[in-house]
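Lab notes, practical 5.
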Amino acid sequence: MPRQALAEDNDAEDFTEELHAIEDSGSESDDDLEQGSTSDDTRSDLGTARRIMTVPQPDAPMHEALEIAQQAYSAARLKLRTLKKEYTVLHAAIPARSRNKVLKKTSALDSQITRAGKKYAMFHYFWVMNGLFPTTPKPNVDPRSDTRWASPEAKLNGAMAELYQCVPKSLHKSMETYSQFGPLFRAAVSSERSNILHSLKDCAGLIFSSLKLDPTVFTAGPAEKKENEQLLALLKKHGEDEYMRLAPVLFTNPSAIVPDDFLKTPIMVKIIRVEIFGKASLSGKTKGHPKARGQRWDTQCCDCGAFLIDT
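Output from the prediction step:
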């Protein structure tokens, strides 16, 4: 028994010496780290960890050790919540079809150009004329003049003059000098056009409900649609001859075309409602749905460009 007690005393002394050796080496490495780093958070974390790892004295109250551990736990939990929020934001910014899951950096100018292109598709035209970029100011060209359509050159000049009215003044210089303005603007118009048409296609049955069409018309294939008499009657005069720009569907009564009824059909109203207020506006249940395009842009009225898009 004396030998066993002596051995235990020697083991305790050796264990105490090892703890002191670890603490001394740790303090030396910490001093080196503090000299090479200027981060207050790192020193705070090391200090907290050192206090937790320190073996309390036999007479030290247990609640002090628990208090230190609780503070460290609360700080770690707060950092974890912050990291989760940052991760969620970054994950949402990554394109859904990105293969390598890399966040593509976009400059503020590129974002403004994309936004302008989406508004152009929403309120003005679905397509951008070839040769429109880079632009040059056309102060002497009236986009509403009849001479705008006299020649291909006149059409291009009129479209360019109108573009200066559609795009914010802060982007006019970029339209003339920035080489990527045209590609970004065209891509935004194309993307927004697809989104608008997709939303209209999803609720085509409700939009054309006043015409009492066969529901299978909207789900049929292209070949079947070309032979559908109901559709042909809406796109051609008496359902025969060539397609018309002033299609019968644009009038109040497609079977009786009256000039004064042009663009006064309720179908046009429904299409504009879907574009600005979303599909839910047709059912009257807008609560609980995300804001539509027009609502995000604080649209207050509808101009002639929206009617041109609908036609």
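Observations recorded by the TA: The chain has 13 helices and no strands. Residues 2-36 form the longest helix (35 residues).
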